[in-house]
Amino acid sequence: MGLQNTKHSKVKQANILMLGLDSAGKSTLLYKFKYNDVFLTIPTIGFNVDMIETERNFTLTFWDVGGQQKMRQKKIPNEIFV
Length: 82
Fold this sequence. Notes:
By secondary structure, the protein is an alpha+beta fold. The chain contains 2 helices and 3 strands, in the order βαββα.
């Protein structure tokens, strides 16, 4: 109960950048992963940040970027696109 002592439990982290075309399903995929359900979404303007903590002390931070043309033109150094 309460906060855990971080000295004894190391939390691992990963940042996930979700990029793609307009209406490709990036936000839908994120909500399916987080809530195990599909919701009606509206187009993302700019970006949304959402964190998911797993049962194994792993934190995933999702950066859900809108699919507008101006967002796809940004260059991000040192990133791997899959």
